Amino acid sequence: MVLAPPNCPSEQAQKAEALIQALKDHGIPVKRGSSISFELANPDAEQRAAVDRTVEVFKQGAPAVFINGMGMSNPSFAQVAAVYEDSRR
């Protein structure tokens, strides 16, 4: 999942679009989103910590990329591809 503002001319949004296209071009499945939300009733400490980590990744700047629970802020294509390949093993 790549999170970035939609239809935005900012440098971060353009970088997100380029990353999404590169992932598609290399056959790496990608889903684009523009926001995150959490619905947790009575979260435990582990769930609160996971939410806090997710929010921190998102705050560091677009694009925010999440692969199988791992979050990265403003990663390169090579970083995303490496994590994706590692997650498939």
General description of the model:
The structure is a single chain. By secondary structure, this protein is an alpha+beta fold. The chain has one domain (2-36, 45-87). Helix content is 46%, strand content 13%. The chain is built from 3 helices and 4 strands. The protein has helices at 11-25, 45-59, 77-87; strands at 2-3, 32-33, 64-67, 70-73. It is globular and about 40 Å long. The two termini are 19 Å apart. The mean pLDDT is 88.
Helix/strand layout:
Layout: E1 2-3, H1 11-25, E2 32-33, H2 45-59, E3 64-67, E4 70-73, H3 77-87
Parallel strand pairs: 1-2
Antiparallel strand pairs: 1-3, 3-4
Properties at a glance:
3 helices; alpha+beta; 89 residues; 13% strand; four-stranded mixed β-sheet; 46% helix
- Percent range of helical residues: 40-55%
Kindly report the spatial arrangement of strands forming the biggest sheet: 2-1-3-4
The shape, in one word, is globular
Largest sheet: 4 strands, mixed
- The SSE string, one letter per element, is EHEHEEH
Question: Strand-residue fraction?
Answer: 5-15%
Radius of gyration: 14 Å
Number of distinct beta strands:
4
**Low-pLDDT segments, ≥5 res:** none
Q: Tell me the count of domains.
A: 1
Summed up, the helix count is 3
